[in-house]
Amino acid sequence: ESSQEVDDEVKSAEVTDVSGETDTNADAAWLGEGGKILVVDDDSANRDLLSRRLDRHKYENVAVESGEEALTLLETERFDLVLLDLMMPGISGLETLERLKADRRLRNIPVIMLTAADSVDSMVQCVLKGAEDYIFKPFNPVLLRARIGACLEKVRLRQQLTYRLKIFISSPGDVIPERRVAKQVIGQLNEEFMGRVFLVPVLWEEEPLLASSTFQAQIDPPNETDIYVGILWSRIGSPLPESILRPDGTRYDSGTAFEFEDAMNAYKEKGRPEILLYRKLGAPSLPLDDREQVMDRLDQIDLLDRYVNKWFIGEDGSYVGAFHNFETDEQLEVMLETHLRKLVDKQLLEDEK
């Protein structure tokens, strides 16, 4: 875009600022406030200007200069909205939009197109290709903010009205990176299924757990969720207090055991939650000079092996239940995304009948 257009926009922004646009109380009350936005524009002055305005209104944002760079970034990062320039060298804004809408995971991310005032026909084409809205350059700062806010608010309203599935993530403390993988996969699937279903991860670390009660008493139990995902490696987990017992009065082997058995008993009674179990292969790295730590981990591995054998291997050595082995986080991500997608599709079909 021309430097004159940028200058005009700066002047417009300055006038708006004088009228009170930067009032922080107004910021807090604005519809659609907050979110992560990707800015795609080959003009560095426009990128800087948009980033400053988004920063001012508390939007997290990333700016890139081409459609190619945007598509690459969207493969690994999640965004709530894309501001996409129409006229760019290389992959044009329209082609970038078409590729976004053709991607199963990315097609539901809303896109606002940015263009010069003489591109009405092109804007109509973009809307027909799936753009949520458009803004003409030079940007009117009030209109820009209003369009972004309205777009994000529509997304949030859709999520609130969308059918929800709760996914319980169960794992001991030795698989924290794998818990992050599970959360990332759920975020990716939420983009893919936007408007059809919203997946709600149940993760204890995201809850304001109070010191006055147990972990188990303060999070949604597995029996009240739709899908249970268990991830195991070399620990079965920590013991539970005597106040948490099995129905027959015996103590659970650990918190992880409580979560698995709660999910399994619920599935036998009412058919939910669906249960997925993953076990990481390979030995953990331990400092050999700490004998107590080594012996504790060996005891944990032995307890875990016995527990898995109890539930999944029959007296004759046959498998009476299925679980999935993996070696790397990348393998877990691929498997979990594939499995969850199929389970979500299955539950959507069942609930539509």
Q: What would your notes on this structure say?
A:
It is elongated, with a radius of gyration of 25 Å. Mean pLDDT is 86; it is low at 1-32. It contains twelve helices and ten strands. By secondary structure, it is an alpha/beta fold. α8 crosses α12. It folds into two domains: 3-160, Response regulator (Rossmann fold); 162-352, Rossmann fold (3-Layer(aba) Sandwich), CATH 3.40.50. The longest helix has 24 residues, at 329-352. It has helices at residues 3-18, 24-29, 44-56, 67-74, 93-102, 120-128, 141-161, 176-192, 215-218, 255-270, 291-312, 329-352; strands spanning 36-40, 60-64, 81-85, 111-116, 133-137, 163-170, 197-202, 227-232, 274-280, 324-326.
Largest sheet: 5 strands, parallel
Mean pLDDT: 86
In sequence order, what are the helices and strands, one letter per element? HHEHEHEHEHEHEHEHEHEHEH
Instruction: Report the principal-axis shape.
Output: elongated
How much helicity do the residues have? 40-55%
Q: Give the second-level CATH assignment, the architecture of the largest domain.
A: 3-Layer(aba) Sandwich
Radius of gyration: 25 Å
* Proportion in β-strands: 15-25%
CATH topology of the largest domain: Rossmann fold
Structural class: alpha/beta
Oligomer: single chain
